Amino acid sequence: MNKKFIGFMAGLIVFGFSFITTSVFASTPSPSVTYQAQVQNIGWQKAVSDGATAGTIGKGLRLEAIKISLNNLPQGLSGGIQYRLFVNCSG
Predict the structure, then answer these.
(1) From the CB of residue 64, how many other CB atoms can be counted at a distance below 10 Å?
(2) Mean pLDDT of all residues in the chain?
(3) Which H or E run includes 44?
(4) Which phi-psi region, left, alpha or beta, contains residue 21 (left: φ > 0; alpha: ψ -120 to 50)?
(5) Of 2, 32, 39, 47, which has the fewest Cβ atoms less than 10 A away?
(6) What are 32-70's pLDDT values in tens digits?
């Protein structure tokens, strides 16, 4: 085989590997945490994810309830969510 043909084949192999790994990992969603807040006098807000603010800012309204879920765990991986809340006047 000549050097140009070998270089062309090596380029195809690298491109093919890049295409395969990109398409496999791009189609697998990343794990995420989604949560939804129920706010005093407003009700349930839209669900938000991964560090976005749930509830309201600067309105002085209570967070009355929260729903938290873990999404898109890869197959074979298990886990859960632990959280702690402070209840006003109860501790």
Answers:
(1) 14
(2) 75
(3) strand 43-44
(4) alpha
(5) 2
(6) 899 999 999 999 999 999 889 999 999 999 989 999 999
Spatial separation of the C-alpha atoms in residues 10 and 12, rounded to whole Å: 5
Considering the entire predicted model, what is its pTM? 0.60
Q: Count CA atoms within 13 Å of residue 25 on its CB side.
A: 6
Domain chopping of the chain, boundaries: 1-29, 31-91
State the residue for tokens 């898109």.
Answer: 72
How deeply is 37 buried, as exposed, middle or buried, from its count of CB atoms within 10 A (0-12, 13-18, 19+)?
Answer: buried
Residue 66: both structure tokens together: 């929260």
Q: Answer left, alpha or beta for residue 61, where phi above 0 means left and psi between -120 and 50 means alpha.
A: beta
Long-range contacts, 39-47 (Cβ 8 Å, 24+): 39/63, 39/64, 40/64
